[in-house]
Specification:
Length: about 290
């Protein structure tokens, strides 16, 4: 019997609903918990990020213009697709060092997170909106609108649950996203991108890159067509660099990081709020 040489998968980027290779041609190895090579991962470059921004911006008008109920249907469809690939997601988490019982729990929680925010899709507006009393012959309304293109640095742990939380909270409000997946545990991010691609999510609404934070943070924070930046990892040097670069273009920056991503604080409509613009409209009465 001839020994079979395993064909290791080369994971690609997810930009604009397609799976391109990085334009730089660079890759980095991903090893399992025993330091055995699992796969090759694309190392995204500045140009890859810029293409992802163009894609996210192009998708923004269509996605933000959809009915909130329809966005909820699509988030629920993503949860359905994840449920169908549960065993693969569990296996990938285990191969990256997550214990079996914790891997099963994390996949369940990630699926539930999409279902949770699908339910909030047509309800969070009531939480953040109001009709304001005024002393003139006007109606005065306050209502939320999506911020725009949101760039996100995802944390390493828990790699799948945090990514599901980030994606669902950003896009349920009508935003589009460019996400840099976990640098040390990126496998489930690419599998999730395959799930997004085969769901009803329009191309460009979510774009997922893999690569090195140190290289890409300056581009995420300084790009003029990114409206908000969510740094969900935990590094003081990164935080300082982001604040300095984002200040040059007055980009909204959120440094929210939850201790476990399982606590009640991480599953709340108030996680959606940082990526909404709360706007007030005046409407005359009797004219």
């Amino acid at each position: 019997m001839i020994d079979h040489l395993p064909v290791l998968k080369t994971y690609k980027l997810y930009i604009g609903g397609k799976f391109p290779r990085t334009e730089s041609g660079r890759y980095f190895p991903v090893n399992d918990k025993n330091q055995k090579l699992l796969a090759n991962m694309c190392r995204a470059s500045r140009k890859d990020f810029r293409e992802a921004v163009v894609s996210a911006r192009s998708a923004f008008a269509g996605w933000s213009g959809r009915a909130a109920y329809n966005r909820g249907q699509i988030l629920y469809r993503i949860a359905e697709m994840m449920e169908g690939r549960r065993e693969q997601l569990i296996s990938e988490l285990e191969s990256q060092g997550v214990k079996s019982n914790l891997a099963k729990r994390e996949v369940t929680e990630a699926v539930d997170r999409f279902v949770y925010y699908a339910g909030w899709s047509d309800k969070f507006q009531q939480v953040f909106s109001s009709v304001n009393p005024v002393a003139t012959s006007h109606f005065n309304f306050t209502m939320p609108e999506p911020t725009g293109v949101v760039a996100v640095m995802a944390p390493d742990d828990p790699s799948l649950l945090s990514l599901a939380s980030i994606i669902s909270t950003v896009i349920v409000g009508g935003n589009t996203a460019i996400i840099l997946a976990s640098e040390t545990k990126p496998l489930t991010a690419i599998t999730l991108s395959e799930i997004l691609n085969t769901s009803d999510l329009p191309a460009g609404v979510v774009n997922i890159l893999t690569g090195f934070r140190e290289e890409l943070i300056p581009h995420f924070a300084s790009h003029m067509d990114v409206n908000a930046f969510w740094y969900a990892a935990d590094n003081q040097n990164d935080t300082k660099k982001i604040q300095e670069l984002a200040a040059e273009n007055v980009k909204r920056v959120c440094f929210t990081k939850f201790r476990t991503w399982r606590e009640d604080e991480a599953e709340s409509p108030y996680v959606i709020e940082p990526f909404l613009e709360i706007k007030t409209t005046w409407h005359p009465v009797g004219y």
